[in-house]
């Protein structure tokens, strides 16, 4: 089969949501539609363990499953789908953000009672950096929630994206009767407590059809009223706006009851884009170029800490990958042969024989691969858009044995290259500040320093609350800034200068006072 056809049937996406909105439940149902039923249990099992503990060693024991489910590949209709896990709950970390740099689209899950929640807002901000197309699923309609129109308004206002409902709910909670699919003109009826994908579907071309009253009773007029309102208020679906990330089609349902999920998945595979072009420093790379290229967006430490074995996850950007292929690792200027890349089928992990643009492969290594590294079979390329994100949580590292300072430095630099945590070395005191977006990252760092680098350290709180990388074209101004803010400046793991502020207010004040200095919320890997 031709490369173009292989690429056209691929869909690579992630789910963005706030914890408890129903991501795990929805993932299970999606996998079941893909025939990966055994995995559905594993998703649940993994989560149950994750809930029970925030202990790193126990997480290590879980690695087998968690690595396998970092990427879940399944087939649906004629499509080959790569669902990339966006870790939430305690293992929310910068990885969660970075995964979104490797997808072509996203599904957003919103709890109908809670509306737009903070984590969704943060993840949405990341999607906006690449104008990632987003399909929205409003979940838990079997419970009392907010009015659907209010939810759409909230999404539009908080997330700055136009909503266009493609289905509309009829009632909610105990009175939830189902959804009306606006583009297929079909009524899908919901039966409480029944988990089935074969719910009753009735074609209703014209909402004035008396059949609607027979089925829905007084709720028929409610539906008519809602749709009339919508026609005036909501913009019609526009594929270009969706693909540009400025409009999101919205579906309603109940993941736990598997209601509305098939409808969501069908629309998703039809509307969401196949792998598209990617920007590299040198040029734009199109997926159907015959030469292989890909970049690393995530590194996961493997089961055995003694071997420093890592799996580097690569998103293929162009061409075809074949088992045993030689690729060039451009940052270190070496050719490497990849005999044992792993592809992640939802059912199990298996060695890759071949993979195409849009797919994710896992490559074993011993710490030689950094996040952002590019592999190609031909010309040197450096893909862009895989940044560091400004951390939101900070801790100061306390080394217990001062003789181990060198070892500490080495460990921290390697862990930061892997994306496990960010490090900042303060200019004035040389202290190491850890930066993270998820609180568990600190425990993981300390534990890994001990087991992998034999460094006994712990962490204490700091006064820093916000970080921004700083640059300035005017050298004199920069020197002055450095002198005045010595207490608040630090170098990150790659030697870039960052300003650490005690509060957002202080940061904004400094930004105002220093118009010549640019404060960056993200920094590209180099
Ligand atoms: P995650 O944290 O986003 O992965 O959320 P989960 O999938 O674990 O769901 C969180 C809770 O919401 C669980 O107790 C689910 O059983 C429940 N849940 C998920 N979907 C629905 C739904 O459609 N209706 C109701 N009532 N509960 C749901």
Question: Can you tag this structure with a few keywords?
Answer:
eight-stranded antiparallel sheet; Rossmann fold; globular; 526 residues; 3 domains; binds guanosine-5'-diphosphate; 15 helices; alpha+beta; Alpha-Beta Plaits; single chain
Question: Can you put this structure into words, describing what you see?
Answer:
With 526 residues, this protein is of the alpha+beta class. It folds into three domains: 18-62 and 106-271, Rossmann fold (3-Layer(aba) Sandwich); 278-376, Rossmann fold (3-Layer(aba) Sandwich); 393-520, 2-Layer Sandwich (Alpha-Beta Plaits). Helices cover 31% and strands 30% of the residues. It is built from 15 helices and 33 strands. The strands form seven sheets. The chain has an eight-stranded antiparallel β-sheet with strand order 18-17-23-14-15-22-19-20. A hairpin with a 7-residue loop joins strand 7 and strand 8. Helix 12 packs across helix 13 (440-453). Residues 49-68 have low confidence and may be disordered. The chain binds guanosine-5'-diphosphate (GDP). Residues 17, 19-25, 88, 139-140, 142-143, 254-257 line the site of guanosine-5'-diphosphate.
């Amino acid at each position: 089969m031709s490369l173009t056809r292989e690429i056209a049937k691929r869909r690579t996406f992630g789910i963005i949501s706030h914890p408890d909105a129903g991501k795990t439940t929805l993932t299970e149902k999606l996998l079941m539609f893909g025939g990966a039923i055994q995995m559905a249990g594993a998703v649940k099992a993994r989560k149950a363990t994750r809930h029970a503990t925030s202990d790193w060693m126990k997480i290590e024991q879980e690695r087998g499953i968690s690595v396998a489910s970092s990427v879940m590949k399944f087939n649906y209709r004629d499509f080959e789908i790569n669902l990339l896990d966006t870790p939430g709950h305690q293992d929310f970390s910068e990885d969660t953000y970075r995964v979104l740099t490797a997808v072509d689209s996203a599904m957003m899950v919103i709890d109908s009672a809670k509306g737009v929640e903070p984590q969704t807002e943060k993840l949405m901000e990341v999607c906006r950096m690449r104008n990632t197309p987003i399909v929205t699923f409003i979940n838990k309609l079997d419970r009392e929630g907010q009015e659907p129109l209010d939810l759409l308004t909230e999404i539009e206002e908080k997330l700055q994206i136009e909503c266009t409902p493609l289905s509309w709910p009829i009632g909610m909670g105990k009175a939830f009767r189902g959804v009306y699919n606006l583009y297929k003109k079909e009524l899908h009826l919901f039966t409480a407590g029944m988990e089935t994908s074969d719910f009753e579907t009735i074609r209703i071309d014209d909402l004035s059809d008396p059949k609607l009253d027979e089925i829905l009773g007084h709720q028929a007029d409610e539906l008519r009223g809602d749709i009339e309102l919508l026609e005036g208020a909501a913009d019609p679906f526009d594929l270009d706006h969706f693909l540009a990330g400025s409009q999101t089609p919205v579906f309603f349902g109940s993941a736990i009851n598997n209601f509305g999920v098939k409808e969501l998945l069908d629309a998703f595979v039809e509307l969401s884009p196949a792998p598209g072009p990617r920007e590299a420093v040198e040029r734009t790379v199109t997926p159907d170029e015959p030469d292989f290229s890909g970049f690393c967006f995530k590194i996961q430490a493997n089961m055995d800490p003694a071997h420093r074995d890592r799996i580097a996850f690569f998103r293929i950007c162009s061409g075809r990958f074949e088992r045993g292929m030689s690729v060039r690792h451009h940052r270190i200027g070496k050719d490497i042969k990849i005999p044992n890349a792993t592809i992640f089928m939802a059912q199990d992990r298996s060695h890759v024989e071949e993979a195409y643009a849009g797919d994710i492969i896992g490559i074993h290594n011993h710490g030689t691969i950094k996040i952002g590294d590019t592999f190609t079979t031909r010309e040197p390329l450096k893909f862009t858009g895989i940044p560091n994100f400004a951390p939101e949580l900070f801790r100061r590292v306390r080394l217990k044995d001062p003789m181990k300072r060198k070892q500490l430095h080495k460990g921290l630099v390697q862990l930061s290259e892997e994306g496990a945590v960010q490090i900042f070395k303060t200019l004035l005191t040389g202290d190491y500040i850890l930066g993270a977006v998820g609180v568990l990252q600190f425990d993981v760092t300390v534990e890994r320093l001990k087991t992998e680098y034999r460094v006994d350290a712990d962490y204490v709180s700091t006064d820093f609350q916000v970080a921004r990388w700083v640059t300035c074209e005017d050298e004199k101004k920069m020197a002055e800034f450095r002198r005045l803010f010595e207490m608040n400046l630090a170098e990150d793991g790659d030697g870039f200068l960052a300003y650490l502020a005690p509060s957002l207010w202080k940061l904004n004040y400094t930004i105002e006072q220093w118009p010549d200095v640019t404060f960056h919320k993200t920094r590209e890997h180099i």
